[in-house]
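Okay, is this right?
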Amino acid sequence: MFGFIKNRLSDITDMVQGEVVLDEDRLDRLIYDFEIILLESDVAFEVCNRLKENLKETLQGRKVKRAELKNTMKESLKAGILEIFPAKQKNLVETIREKSQKPYIIVFVGINGTGKTTTIAKVAHLLKKSNMSSVFAASDTFRAGAIEQLEVHAKRLDVKMIRHDKGADPAAVAFDAIEHARAHGKDAVLIDTAGRMETNVNLLDELKKVVRVTNPDMVLFVGDALTGNAALDQAEIFSSAVPIEGTILTKADADVKGGSAISIAYATKRPILFLGTGQEYEDLMEFDPEWFVNEILN
């Protein structure tokens, strides 16, 4: 799935001969090449700078044999990336199960085309496998066909969906879904929202209203692993608008670089909960930072 960084890291370290002292000049040359690798791996510039400074603090002045250089840089880089990811939290199913006053309310946010609606269906499927019930709130009343798209998933999964007409108040739809869930003892409400561009101020204000009215237990940012450097800007703007509590990163099966995950974690300061690895309902993998970093470096 990932592996671009590890291949390029070998290219750099294989050029070093014998035993070297990583003084400032030599380290700057190695780190310059390393910075290019990170940028080509879709790691945002701001995040690159943090990782560069971490490498300098860790490695400057160290005496390293050529045979050990690659592993030394890899371990330093691994530690630097792991610092960006928040500590692993309890998994989502356990968190929902443990809430005493149901339902557990999740608002899903993100830009157009990230696979947000399919991700909501995957989460509902995950809950169903765990003998937990959910309700869909079709609060994307802006995009043509959005309600119908969510309804297809609701029928396939046998999940109740609350909908209003196109153009209705998204917050009202979400409110009605929560009331239905309370009345029928459902475990969770999964709220779909319009896949707004991060620059659309009016739609962002509408999103703030949905969050204000529903008072959710969690707001999840759904990001696209193929977005590249734009992932950081998108995550930062959504985080400034609503309180992001976690991320689900879609299309990870098509991403050979892994940089978007690092950038999004840096921007939100919140954990990545899942990776979307395909179009089937089962294609939702719990994210493990240690596994992820090993995958891109080992």
Observations:
- Strands lie at 19-21, 63-65, 104-109, 134-139, 160-162, 188-193, 218-224, 246-250, 272-276, 284-286.
